[in-house]
Design a protein that fits this description.
single chain; five-stranded antiparallel β-sheet; 454 residues; alpha+beta; four-stranded antiparallel β-sheet
């Protein structure tokens, strides 16, 4: 979610790209946006901007027309931003558009992909928000120290820093960085953390004796919690980038490098009672939510891998398919070196493997014994009872019938008949040169024909 630095950079972008540029026509709203229409139309007008906490006010000033000055208060929500592009390159989720007068036409648009942003035409700053932590530091500090008895400071300091009534402009990543620099646990009472700030304030007499340069030096060398709420957002503004410069894309690399705690490896994170995740180091504090697990951020990229050891192994290959001596060829094989194992661990691992092997052997022996015992039983059963299968070549009467069918058959049919044996022919006893005998019996018709001829 955009916070005070992002809103301030957006206002600086508008003042830079819109300086000396005239706009014309009606302010357009996209059809999909649920925000109200902007009833403003002028032949030529200029646009300037100012930020306060998590709000930006666009000031529309007519040039030649006698119309009154209008303003639009923007709240960026979760993904809002301001872009200045050509009409052809206008972003997809541009829900509020201001067109320039000159050619080629450009457009200043409010881009909000998630549609959580809102705007109010000719409205004031949101009443429930306190002074800005960046542009109204003295009012911001006085507002907090004079209202420490408020119930809002009974909560943990990490939850109180998101209260826009007192910390207008502080968001999730800013609170993590502020508390980390002071090594303040995020879940300690907010009043206890801020009362120490109140007692550290120098007396009025000492304040009068110090010059402005000395005050700034003391603030930078030993800042307290409220001073860091002012200084840390200014550091983000000085980083620049993030698409808030003309012609730049959304590059968040400088901001990611600037983070010391937020989403960094080695840091812990825990969700507060509002569901917002806070990153910290060390003990969370006595007011940490119970039953919620503390997570530790791990490295997702640039993981340090262990060195790779290259070992030479020999492979045997026959040369040209001949049955000669095998030719040895060395090739390199890469193997990752694992963690070192001491002698005690190696001995323990060896015992475990030996136990596993012995258990496997005993299991196989038991299975083998069961199979042998089962085979012996089958042989004994076969000796005691011999089962013969009936022959498929015998005649139907060779098998005895049972039941009622056996009563209607003669006694001779019940006894099996002996199988007729085939006699071998005497062809083998004849000489080799003797003519072959035609042993095939003649048919009855051929016999009668021969008798008739005779």
């Amino acid at each position: 979610m955009p916070e005070a630095p992002e809103l301030h950079l957006a206002s600086l972008l508008v003042n830079k790209v819109c300086a000396g540029v005239q706009f014309e026509g009606k302010v357009e709203k996209s059809t999909v946006s649920k925000n109200p229409e902007v009833p403003f139309s002028c032949p030529d007008y200029t646009i300037s901007a100012v930020s306060r906490g998590k709000e930006v006010k666009l000031i529309l000033t007519p040039v030649s027309d006698a119309a009154e000055v209008a303003c639009i208060v923007l709240r960026f929500g979760m993904s809002g931003s301001l872009k200045f592009t050509t009409e052809d390159e206008m972003p997809k989720h541009a829900h509020l558009r201001f067109y320039t007068k000159h050619v080629p036409r450009h457009v200043l648009c409010f881009v909000d992909p998630r549609r959580f942003g809102t705007w109010v035409f000719n409205g004031p700053w949101q009443p429930g928000r306190g002074p800005c932590v960046m542009t109204e530091y003295e009012k911001f500090r006085a507002n907090i120290l004079s209202n420490l008895s408020d119930k809002a400071f009974d909560k943990p300091i990490c939850e109180a820093l998101l209260n826009q009534k007192y910390f207008n402009g502080i968001g999730n990543y800013l609170r993590s960085e502020i508390l980390f620099r002071l090594q303040i646990p995020p879940f300690i009472p907010a009043r206890a953390a801020l009362e120490t700030v109140k007692h550290q304030d120098p007396d009025e007499k000492n304040k009068g004796d110090l010059t402005l340069s000395k005050k700034i030096k003391i603030k930078k060398e030993n800042p307290d919690l409220l001073q860091l709420c002012h200084l840390v957002p200014l550091e983000v503004v000085n980083l620049g980038g993030k698409g808030y410069e003309p012609g730049q894309t959304d590059d968040y690399t400088p901001l990611k490098k600037w983070f010391q705690c937020y989403f960094n490896p080695g840091m812990k994170s825990l969700s507060d009672r509002n569901g917002r995740r806070i990153w910290f180091q060390g003990d969370p504090g006595p007011l940490a939510p119970k039953g919620k697990k503390v997570r530790k951020q791990h490295k997702s990229v640039d993981v340090d891998l262990k060195p790779i050891k290259v070992e030479k192994t020999a492979s045997k290959r026959k040369a040209g398919g001949d049955k000669g001596t095998p030719v040895k060829k060395e090739h390199k094989e890469e193997k990752k070196v694992g963690p070192k194992v001491d002698a005690a661990q190696r001995k323990k691992m060896g015992k475990k493997t030996e136990n596993v092997v012995e258990e496997e052997k005993t299991r196989k022996k038991g299975e083998r014994a069961k199979r042998v015992q089962k085979g012996k039983g089958a042989e004994e059963e076969a000796k005691g009872k011999i089962v013969r299968r009936p022959s498929h070549r015998g005649s139907a009467l060779s098998t005895p019938r049972r039941g009622k069918a056996a009563l209607h058959l003669p006694e001779d049919a019940l006894t099996p008949k002996p199988r007729r044996r085939r006699l071998k022919s005497d062809i083998g006893l004849l000489a080799q040169n003797s003519p072959k005998l035609n042993l095939r019996p003649q048919r009855k018709s051929a016999v009668h024909a021969a008798e008739h001829k005779s």
